[in-house]
Amino acid sequence: MNQNDFYTQAERERLSEARQSLLRLSGDALSQHDLELLEAYIGRAVDTGAIRRDAFGLNPVLTDMETALVLAEEIGPTRGALLGVMLNLCVMSGACQTDEVARDFGQDVAHILHGLLRIRELYQKSAAVESENFRSLLVTFAEDMRVILIMIANRVSLMRLIRDTENLEAQKRVSMEAAYLYAPLAHKLGLYKLKSELEDLSLKYLEHDAYYHIKEKLNETKKSRDAYIARFIQPIEEKLKAVGLKFHMKGRTKSIHSIWQKMKKQNVGVDGVYDLFAIRIILDSAPEREKMDCWQTFSIITDMYQSNPKRMRDWLSVPKSNGYESLHITVLGPEQKWVEVQIRTERMDDIAEHGLAAHWRYKGIKGGQSGVDEWLANVRSALEQGDDMQLMDQFRLDLVEDEVFVFTPKGDLFKLPVGATVLDFAYSIHTKVGNHCTGARIGNRNVTIRQKLQSGDQVEILTSANQTPKQDWLNIVTTSRARAKIRQSLKEMHSKDALLAKEELERKLKNRKLDYDEPTLMHTITRLGYRVVTDFYAALAAGTLDMNSVLESYAQQLRHSRGEEERTAPTQSADQYVMQPDEAVKRLMGAEDVLVIDRNLKGLDFQMARCCQPVYGDEVFGFVTSGGGIKIHREDCPNAPQMRERFGYRIVRARWAGKRGSQYPITLRVVGNDDLGIVNNITSIISKEENILLRSISIDSHDGLFSGTLTVMLEDAGRLQKLIKKLKTVKGVKNVSRS
User: Fold this and answer.
1) Which pLDDT band, with edges at 50, 70 and 90, does 323 fall under?
2) Is 510 in contact with 503 (CB distance < 8 Å)?
3) CATH tag, 3-206
4) Are strands 606-608 and 459-463 parallel, antiparallel or unpaired?
5) Is 392 helix (H, G, I), strand (E, B) or coil?
6) How high is the pLDDT of residue 122?
7) What is the pLDDT of residues 36-64, one digit of tens each?
8) Domain 372-480 belongs to what architecture?
């Protein structure tokens, strides 16, 4: 086919415009040579008749060019992805092979095309997302993130182009896939602008009357909305300027799809959806002042307008898994109307609008870390389990459903998918906590490990040293992390117990001053009737074989191998021996036999204990861990008595160096009367303190009283005492204590 017959005049003009736009948007990613070579490939494919128009009558070359523009403008230009999109047609049509592409464009582009080819094979087998195909699709996802981004961009460009198609059946199928798979995928990756466009276009094609009804209503009320927004933001602007904050504000009407979902959920008309728009305050803040400025803005707004605490969303302290950071509050504005206010910085807003692309631009700046890698790791973990139906259920849960937010008793915040159980939460804290979990306390009641969690629950995990993972736990958990950890623990339990028994035996030998000799130990094991070494250690671990008997048999065998005479003196009990601290610790303790805590300490794994959160100035001691490092605990740590009683030989004296170290996290518990504005007063005091940062806050009110936890970052015990004293002066606060 001649190229003159394949392109219409309008398509030629659009391709020329798109080519120039792509060169401009891609920056250094694409060169003029890349485009010339690309056009040669496409021209050859068109001339041989390999490329044909699709089911909608669209020119696929133009569709791919539009996809590349979406990638470059909305997501982030990378050479491999852009060239992979536009070479996809040539490879799929058979006009060229991937080895040719690798030769002319590089292996990276060929790798992208390999992923796209696999997706095409899946859809050729079945247009529906079925279990087996879905698993293969996820494998492709996990291999290269750019393949996912291309899929989303392609669906956006296609949805834009099929507006006037006569093939309504194909339009419906494409729209349903966009709503079911691609929009949730874009949401999970933080691409909110593309997610909203996919949802709105899907609604437009699938629910034509509903879409245009809402659109007309929004057009009718636009003037009154704009006037209300102006009245609402004027006093806020004055207050923010008065304190010296740099910012800009804008009103944002909710997407048509979002309004339609609220109408269905609440069973109301458009006029019944009270939060049709939101006010966004975008601060121009330096990286180190971002959170401080956001909380200060929060305090100013809630001082002016009454807030609804049930509708507060703090994604500043703990960002969403896709990296989204913002403070959302709903306040009662003029004319008694509820208004949603979103507070964020320029960096946070860029990430909210452009997702991954913004993360790449801000790489290296301290802030919320994108959870994409964690999400992909969970997908890989699920794939390793080999259960197709469980995999599909888990992936749909992770994509479509919202998240629940639960608190520990100390106020630490955790995110889990809806439907997660107490056991899921235990494993999200730590594998050991999950393995020993027996249940939990939520509020004032005990619940089982099967209890499903709700947002706002304060969960105290109950554990027992005698508890171990069970096979049926796999039917209780919903998260792939928990499922993988349970399987791993079940597999390792026997070998782990045997390893611990071996370590204990070697320690007892050392305490009795008996040299460890491998041949002698093997002889001893054989004499005791064990042919397999692992069976011997398993018996030691289970207690069916007495440790002292083994030690006596080993000592006797060792003397015999050395030709020494039997001694009648009784062997000293291992309990009378004291293990000495590690040699690395001795070297760092100095002549005073005291460990000096310094942030520049070298040669030792050195951490503050999370159980008691010591800060500079506290009376502390060191505890030598089994790995050879040291955990620093407060002298009044709740775990101190047990550590001293059971592991006294691991305790070392410690004191702080003369200079202060870095900031430390401290959890404070606050109790008082539930007075209006008390939370604002507390956060306002903290925001005004120099070198003290508020990291998280959790407040629970009941019967006129409130209790909550605050996590702050500060330098030393002196600042902590001053802060506690100031918080106690807040009207309504009964007590402030350190957890």
Assistant:
1) confident
2) no
3) 1.10.3210.10
4) unpaired
5) helix
6) 56
7) 899 899 888 888 888 888 889 899 999 99
8) Roll (3.10)
The pair of three-digit structure tokens given for residue 1, joined into one six-digit string: 């086919």
Q: What superfamily in CATH does domain 215-361 come from?
A: Beta Polymerase, domain 2 (3.30.460.10)
Please tell me the least confidently modeled range out of 393-402, 433-442, 485-494. 393-402
User: Residues 6 or more apart from 306 whose CB is under 8 A from it?
Assistant: 331, 332, 676
- Give the C-alpha separation, 687 to 689, whole Å: 6
Residue ranges covered by each domain of the chain: 3-206, 215-361, 372-480, 488-567, 583-656, 664-738
In the sheet with 733-738, reading across from the earlier edge strand, the strands are 693-702, 705-714, 664-673, 733-738
Task: Give the max Cα distance, the chain.
Answer: 107
Instruction: Count the residues in the chain.
Output: 739
Q: Given pLDDT bands bounded at 50, 70 and 90, which one contains residue 291? A: very high
Confirm if 585 and 572 have CB atoms less than 8 A apart.
Answer: no
DSSP string, 627-694: TS-EEEEETT-TTHHHHHHH-GGGEEEEEE-SS--S-EEEEEEEEEE--TTHHHHHHHHHHHSTT-EE
Q: What is the mean pLDDT of the chain?
A: 79
Residue pLDDT, tens place only, 670-700: 888 877 677 778 888 888 887 788 877 877 7
CATH number of the 664-738 domain: 3.30.70.260
89 alpha-carbon distance from chain centroid: 36
Q: How is residue 178 annotated by DSSP?
A: I
Calculate the alpha carbon distances from 444 to 243, 460, 654 in Å.
43, 10, 39
Label residue 418 exposed, middle or buried (CB < 10 Å: 0-12, 13-18, 19+).
Answer: middle
In this prediction, residues 213-239 reach a mean pLDDT of 89
